[in-house]
Amino acid sequence: MAKVYARCNDAGLVEHIFSEVFEIPEETDRLLKEGEGDEYVHVQSQYQLYDQWGRHNYIWAEETGGMRELTEEEKPPKPQPQPSEVEVLRQQVEALLAQVNILTGGAD
Protein backbone atom coordinates (compact mmCIF):
# COMPACT_ATOMS: atom_id res chain seq x y z
CA MET A 1 0.00 0.00 0.00
CA ALA A 2 1.39 3.40 -1.01
CA LYS A 3 0.81 6.65 0.84
CA VAL A 4 0.41 10.05 -0.80
CA TYR A 5 1.52 13.18 1.04
CA ALA A 6 1.01 16.92 0.66
CA ARG A 7 3.70 19.41 1.63
CA CYS A 8 2.39 22.85 2.56
CA ASN A 9 3.92 26.24 3.19
CA ASP A 10 3.33 28.18 6.43
CA ALA A 11 -0.01 29.47 5.12
CA GLY A 12 -1.23 25.92 4.46
CA LEU A 13 -1.00 26.26 0.68
CA VAL A 14 -0.06 22.96 -0.96
CA GLU A 15 3.27 23.23 -2.77
CA HIS A 16 4.17 19.59 -3.38
CA ILE A 17 2.29 16.29 -3.63
CA PHE A 18 4.21 13.04 -3.76
CA SER A 19 4.12 9.32 -3.12
CA GLU A 20 6.25 7.75 -0.43
CA VAL A 21 7.38 5.34 -3.16
CA PHE A 22 9.64 8.09 -4.57
CA GLU A 23 10.25 10.41 -1.63
CA ILE A 24 10.54 10.10 2.13
CA PRO A 25 7.98 12.31 3.85
CA GLU A 26 9.13 14.98 6.26
CA GLU A 27 7.66 15.34 9.73
CA THR A 28 5.43 18.24 8.64
CA ASP A 29 4.06 16.52 5.51
CA ARG A 30 0.39 15.58 5.67
CA LEU A 31 -1.09 12.25 4.65
CA LEU A 32 -3.47 12.86 1.77
CA LYS A 33 -4.54 9.32 0.86
CA GLU A 34 -3.31 5.76 0.70
CA GLY A 35 -4.04 2.78 -1.46
CA GLU A 36 -2.76 0.56 -4.23
CA GLY A 37 -2.16 1.18 -7.91
CA ASP A 38 -0.76 3.90 -10.14
CA GLU A 39 -3.13 6.47 -8.65
CA TYR A 40 -1.12 6.25 -5.42
CA VAL A 41 2.32 6.01 -7.00
CA HIS A 42 2.37 8.50 -9.89
CA VAL A 43 0.45 11.33 -8.24
CA GLN A 44 2.06 14.47 -9.67
CA SER A 45 0.04 14.27 -12.88
CA GLN A 46 -3.22 14.09 -10.93
CA TYR A 47 -2.95 17.51 -9.32
CA GLN A 48 -2.30 20.84 -10.97
CA LEU A 49 -0.80 22.66 -7.98
CA TYR A 50 -0.69 26.08 -9.66
CA ASP A 51 -2.97 27.83 -12.13
CA GLN A 52 -1.83 29.57 -15.32
CA TRP A 53 -0.95 32.70 -13.33
CA GLY A 54 1.23 30.81 -10.84
CA ARG A 55 -1.32 30.95 -8.03
CA HIS A 56 -1.83 27.97 -5.69
CA ASN A 57 -4.84 25.76 -6.45
CA TYR A 58 -5.00 23.83 -3.15
CA ILE A 59 -4.92 24.51 0.57
CA TRP A 60 -4.80 22.18 3.53
CA ALA A 61 -7.94 22.87 5.54
CA GLU A 62 -7.15 22.19 9.20
CA GLU A 63 -10.85 22.28 10.11
CA THR A 64 -11.56 19.27 7.88
CA GLY A 65 -8.12 17.68 8.07
CA GLY A 66 -7.86 17.47 4.31
CA MET A 67 -6.91 19.22 1.14
CA ARG A 68 -9.41 21.31 -0.77
CA GLU A 69 -9.35 23.44 -3.90
CA LEU A 70 -9.13 27.19 -3.42
CA THR A 71 -11.98 29.28 -4.76
CA GLU A 72 -11.23 32.12 -7.16
CA GLU A 73 -12.16 34.56 -4.39
CA GLU A 74 -9.56 33.04 -2.05
CA LYS A 75 -6.75 33.35 -4.56
CA PRO A 76 -4.75 36.56 -4.94
CA PRO A 77 -5.73 38.79 -7.87
CA LYS A 78 -4.58 37.73 -11.30
CA PRO A 79 -1.43 39.58 -12.34
CA GLN A 80 -1.79 42.37 -14.87
CA PRO A 81 -0.98 41.20 -18.40
CA GLN A 82 2.49 42.12 -19.52
CA PRO A 83 3.04 43.76 -22.91
CA SER A 84 3.93 41.38 -25.71
CA GLU A 85 7.41 41.36 -27.20
CA VAL A 86 6.04 43.16 -30.26
CA GLU A 87 4.52 45.88 -28.07
CA VAL A 88 7.80 46.33 -26.16
CA LEU A 89 9.70 46.63 -29.44
CA ARG A 90 7.16 49.13 -30.78
CA GLN A 91 7.57 51.27 -27.66
CA GLN A 92 11.36 51.13 -27.97
CA VAL A 93 11.22 52.15 -31.64
CA GLU A 94 8.93 55.07 -30.81
CA ALA A 95 11.31 56.21 -28.05
CA LEU A 96 14.31 55.97 -30.39
CA LEU A 97 12.48 57.90 -33.12
CA ALA A 98 11.63 60.62 -30.60
CA GLN A 99 15.31 60.86 -29.63
CA VAL A 100 16.34 61.05 -33.30
CA ASN A 101 13.81 63.83 -33.88
CA ILE A 102 15.21 65.78 -30.93
CA LEU A 103 18.80 65.34 -32.13
CA THR A 104 17.98 66.30 -35.71
CA GLY A 105 15.95 69.34 -34.80
CA GLY A 106 12.53 67.77 -35.04
CA ALA A 107 12.67 66.50 -38.61
CA ASP A 108 10.28 63.63 -39.29
Describe the 3D structure.
The protein is α+β, with helices and mostly antiparallel strands and 108 residues long. The protein has two domains: 68 residues, no CATH class; 29 residues. The chain has one helix and five strands, in the order E-E-E-E-E-H. The chain has a three-stranded antiparallel sheet, with no helix packed on it. Strands 4-5 form a two-stranded antiparallel sheet. A hairpin with a 4-residue loop joins strand 4 and strand 5. It is elongated.
Question: How can the largest sheet be summarized?
Answer: 3 strands, antiparallel
Strand content: 25-35%
Task: Provide the succession of SSEs.
Answer: EEEEEH
Total beta strand runs: 5
CA-CA gap between termini: 75 Å
Which ranges are low-confidence, i.e. pLDDT below 50, for 5 or more consecutive residues? none
Q: In angstroms, what is the radius of gyration?
A: 24 Å
Number of helices: 1
Structure class? alpha+beta
How much helix is in the residues? 10-25%
The number of distinct structural domains comes to 2
Mean pLDDT across all amino acids: 92
Shape: elongated
Q: What order do the strands of the largest sheet run in, or round the barrel if closed?
A: 2-1-3
